[in-house]
From TrEMBL:
InterPro entries: SpoIIAA-like, SpoIIAA-like_sf, STAS_dom_sf
UniProt xrefs under Gene3D superfamilies: SpoIIaa-like domains
Domain of life: Bacteria
Record's signal peptide: none
Protein name listed in UniProt: STAS/SEC14 domain-containing protein
Entry-linked Pfam families: SpoIIAA-like
Species, as recorded: Uruburuella suis
């Protein structure tokens, strides 16, 4: 399940339980729409409630990121599950994206809004 909210800096995306191909397609449409409105939008991806993801979704995510990696600005990822964190970091190695990882969504959003002390 996916929840997507537009923000002044771009998008807040929260994933719950299993991240499926259908969820990814919803995310992809929202992300591309956001790119039309905001130049290099930032994104908060809250994976703290994610339990699993499908392989077909992972393949599509890698294709999307390699095709659109220059379209997005900063990416904040909230994650606490060790396996989900490992999968996220592995996908970072395949693309040129360098997201910042957080344990808390409020801290991640503060960073995107510019009030975080670290870049």
């Amino acid at each position: 399940m996916i929840s997507i909210r537009e923000q002044s800096y771009g998008l807040n995306v929260a994933l719950y339980n299993e991240f499926t191909l259908e969820d990814f397609q919803e995310f992809e449409a929202a992300a591309l729409k956001c790119v039309e409105k905001v130049h290099r939008p930032d994104m908060l991806l809250d994976l703290s409630m994610l339990k699993d993801f499908t392989i077909d979704m992972a393949v599509e995510q890698l294709k999307f990121m390699s095709k659109h990696e220059d379209d997005f600005g900063r990416i904040a990822i909230v994650v606490d599950d060790v396996w989900i964190k490992l999968a996220s970091r592995l996908s970072d190695l395949i693309t040129q994206q360098h997201p910042k990882y957080f344990d808390d969504a409020a801290e991640a959003q503060a960073w995107l809004l510019g009030s975080g002390s670290e870049e």
